[in-house]
Amino acid sequence: MRFDLLALYGGPDQVMTVTSGLASLLGLLLMFWNKIVGVFFKMVRKIKGPPGPIAAEPARKDAAAKTP
Known about the structure:
The protein is mainly alpha-helical and 68 residues long. It has a domain at 1-47. It has helices at residues 3-6, 12-31, 33-48, 63-66. The longest helix is centred in the N-terminal third of the chain and has 20 residues, at 12-31. It starts with a helix and ends with a helix.
């Protein structure tokens, strides 16, 4: 019998503890997801800087004649 493989056995009492901890972390993440994403984008905006002005398309001369 290989005892080194027996040491890697995870019984239900160990596995349920780990899965319960992961579920609680996931629940906490989901509760504050909106705040986490908002802080992330605020940091990205601070690093990249504000977006520059968007250039408007020049108006065409025949555009006014086609409007009803």
